[in-house]
Amino acid sequence: MAKVLIFNICLVLILSGVESCFIPGALYVVVPNRVENGHYIATVEVADCDTQSMHFTLEDLDFIISNNGEIQSTKTVLVPIAGRTFSVWVQDNSGPKSEMVVHLVRSELPKKESTEFLKRSKRRWSPPPFNILENDKGPYPREIEKIVSDSEAKQEVYYTLSGHGVDQHPVGVFSLDKYSGMLSVHKSVDREEFPSFTLTTRVFNRNTNAETDLPLDINILVDDVNDNAPTFKDALQFTVLEQSAEGEVVGKVNAVDRDLERSLHVKIKYSLTTGSDWFIIHPETGVITTKTRNLDRETQEKHLVTVVIKDMDGAANGLSNTGTATITVGDINDNAPTFKESAYAATVKENEGEKLILRIPVQDKDLVNTPNWKAKFAITKGNENGNFRIDTDPNTNEGLLYVAKPLDFEKNSKVNLEIQARNEAELKGTTDPWVSVPVVVSVVDEDEGPEFSAPVVRFTVKENLPNGTVIGSYTAVDPETKSSNGIMYYKLSDPGSWIDVDKFNGELKVANTIDRESPFVQNGIYNITMKAVDAKAKTGTGTVILIVEDVNDNVPTIPTSELVVCEKQGQLGSVLVVAEDNDQSPFSAPFSFSLPKDHDGEWSLTRFNDTATTLQQLKELPTGTYEVPVEVTDLQGAGKKQTAKVRICQCRNGACPAKERSMSLGPLALLAMLLPLALLLLLGLLLAFFCVTKRDKQEVEYGGDSGGILLKSNTEAPGDEVDSSLINVPIAGVDSAVKGSVKGLNTGWMGNMSTSTMGGLGTADNGMYNTGVVTSEMNDFYSSQYDQYGTQKFGGTLQGSGVNYDNRFIAQDSSYIQNWNTNGRYLQQRLVYFGEEEDGRYAGDLMHSYGFEGVGSEAGSVGCCSEFGNDDNLDFVNTLGPKFKTLGEVCRKT
Fold it and tell me: What is the pTM (predicted TM-score) of this model?
């Protein structure tokens, strides 16, 4: 321990580089964990110090040091386990400050007050923190201290060490001899990166490996050396106003140092190497102040000042850095604007108004386009009647002199004005006054027209006054005769045609409804321009201002456009309804919103603000448009029931999808729609023509006797039923279905039903066929199984029946097949393609409906389409009776 203290003392001596007042570099003091107020800590020993000029400083406010070096606490202090550190400085007139770091080591043992350096006992298992010097160049390894456990006296033990610096980052800095307990350091450490290390030491029995003592945390503090130069923290940009007083603060130079806080290594001294004629910097705080009050922006706008920062409180061995500060001199209004000429003159005709008659230029040395430079002009004399006004040209900074109202030559032929130039900002830092210049305005005589009693007259009226109401009168006089005789009055402008003017006496009456909400009224003011004409046709003009007072003639309204409510799963939607009222307060907002007493309970209203309410769903509603009645009244209770159109939809990107547009048909579209109807009518006429045209008789090829049976056709009245005994059911026991036709053949053929215009094959019912139907699905079956002549396209077997069918017929029972073909598939197929062999077209009467032929008919009702070609065997038709023959003749060609 003594070696470490001597090393620290020598280090401080080397770093200081002086032979003046000196104190040791470190002092370790064992104190209790709670240091009471006024507790004596230690006495600092010094060497080579002038006791007359020597003085101590201590910046830790928890402690105080007297002139004799005694340190005491100023309040109750709790010392942490890791201890506490603070610095003490001593200085005399012979040299710079010398620093000592005081380490308070916490211990529960009674404190031994001593001014000597602490000596560690090797037999203590709870040693104080150890110290190493940062960036020490070695040689390494270097022993620090020996760690000894009390259990070593009775047992053979070994030690282990862990923590940051051993087996954690940074690895390999420290090591502990396993058997001797010697703690060593192996490399240099940067205090700014690792200010301290906490290592854990454990002790074990060499034979049993059992832990013989509690683990011990060892604190290693890294002592600081001055290895970091101070740096500038902020940009060196400052501004100070010109003519500032001495000592005016310009700005503060902020510098930082990474070395140990509160040590001399971070004690920075500030100085200037340039600019010291104008500015001063405080050596300890870095605050720059003015040295003179003669700063003038118009002479020098910017000053570049070199700033030097140096640690060790500016000592010769301190580290330093240099920066350039830019100090901008701010402008003040210390220069008044001046005129280029000593006097100005202008000429104007009488009765001319709103005319620019003179431009007055000025000069100003202050900063351009600032309030210190921008000029303001004032007419200080000669404008008692308000005939003139003067403005500033924002681009040129010139004064613009106008005639505000016409001049009268008879009253004054010459006007003497005095115009003063000022700045927007007040003068500062100068005793010069604002400058004025004389301006002579000469008035040119002209023949004058009548003059109104006042250039502008005001009348207050309420809106909606009845027509004919007298508002007042506006008259003029001849400036020469001072009389109104012979003067006529007219309106030059009356935007709303609200006023009638009596041309003889200038009386004003209401001609149309006065509406304050009219666009002609601005801020409640309505302007009328009047003209007076004398006997010489000379004119004069004047203005009538109507101040229109509001009445409650408008009710609040809500928008007529649709309000969108986006439908959300599990949520009830709402929308904001905003009302508007053209009236002004107190005849408008705040509005009152309510639902009628008889509302449907699907919506509710909640106040949002003075002009809006929230319309909220009370239950889930389907998408669509809803008309919600809402009563809206203004502050005076005036209002009406209105309808809010609300559209509920599934929104896309926050909006309802666009509605389908309705389309109107033009002439060409209508013609395109009527053309198919015309073609259909023409087709009907062609069918009728072909139906009554005789055709050559076609014979139907047939392989057997059909029995002369025709099924009953559709009738419009009751007819004869066919004897069911004459109808033979096709193949019994056929179970399976054929696509589109046969649905089950166990008890007869069951097909899908579709009404036909000709009697054909029906469905089986209790072993009998119902007449009058032919299925459309039969056609699908036939077209897939047979060609246009009834010939089978391919051979096969009806599934589940065992019945084979070949080229033209199903070969099993000829009597069954004859009835099947004649009354069903064959006849239907032949009718579809009837006439194709002869002329390549369909017959004109494919299907027709015929009514009841009479009671007792043996043949029933048949159509002309029953005619077959000459090539077919139709001998069975001869057995059908006389009525069939008669009907057959109708369809034959004559």
Answer: 0.40
